[in-house]
Amino acid sequence: MTAIGVMGGTFDPIHFGHLRAAEEVLQGFGLERVIFVPAGMPPHKPLSEVTSPEHRYMMAKLATADHPRFDVSPVEIQREGPSYTLDTLRELKQTICKDKKLYFITGFDAILEVHTWNGYKQLFDLADFIAVTRPGYSVEAFLTLEKFLGPECFSKVHPFPVTLLAIASREIRRRVREGESIRYLVPEPVRLYIEKHGLYSATAGDMG
Ligand code: NAP
Hints:
Blueprint: E1 3-9, H1 16-28, E2 33-38, H2 53-64, E3 70-72, H3 75-78, H4 85-94, E4 101-107, H5 108-111, H6 120-126, E5 128-133, H7 139-154, E6 157-161, H8 169-177, H9 188-197
Parallel strand pairs: 1-2, 1-4, 2-3, 4-5, 5-6
Bound molecules: NADP nicotinamide-adenine-dinucleotide phosphate.
C-alpha cells in the first residue's frame, strides 16, 4: 500500500522550515506525495490572531507550485467551524486518499498535545503521526506522551529529526511588522505575496 503524508499546520506564513521538513519526510518515509493542509480555523488559537485562511492557502500553493510531489488541499478552509484533524483525515480517507496509508505530519510541539485533540483515539485508526523536530529534541517530553496515549497509539507516533532550520512563522511576522527583511526565509513568491497584500505589517489592522 502506498503512503501519503498530510502536512498540517497554520502556515502563517509557510516557510522554508516547513518545506524542508516535508521534503525530508517524503524521502525518509518513502511517501508517494505530501499534501499540505492549511488549518481553516485552528481549534486552539483565537481567530483574531490568525491571517485569513484564503491568504494562508494561497501562500502554501505558491510555495509548493514547483514541487511535483507536493499538493495543497483546501479541505479545512472550505469546512465551517474549527478545523479538527479528525474530520480532515476522515474526509481525505474517503476522497483522495482511499486505500492509502496516511501519515499526519506536523511540528513536534504540536504533537506533544495530541492527546488533547478532538477524538484523539480515533485519529490513530486513521493515521500514524510524524512529529518533525530538530536534532536534540526532548526525548523526555516525548516519552511522557506514552502515559497519555497508551502503548498502542504511542507506537504510531514517530519523532523525525530534520535539518536544523531555525525559522518560525512568528519570527517572520515580527520581522515584517518591524520592517525587517524576510528574504531567504520564505520562497520568493510567498515574500512577494506578503508584500503585495500588506500582510503582517504594522498598519495591517485586519489580517484578512
Ligand atoms: P502550532 O501550535 O502553531 O505550532 C507548534 C510548533 O510546531 C511551532 O513551532 C510551529 O512552527 C511548528 N509547526 C506547525 N506545523 C508544522 C509543520 N507542518 N511542520 C513543521 N513544523 C510545524 O501548531 P498548529 O500549526 O496550530 O497546528 C499543527 C497542526 O495540528 C494543524 O494541522 C492543526 O490543525 C492540528 N491541530 C489539531 C487539533 C485538533 O484536531 N483538535 C488541535 C491542535 C492542532 P511554525 O509556527 O513556524 O509553523
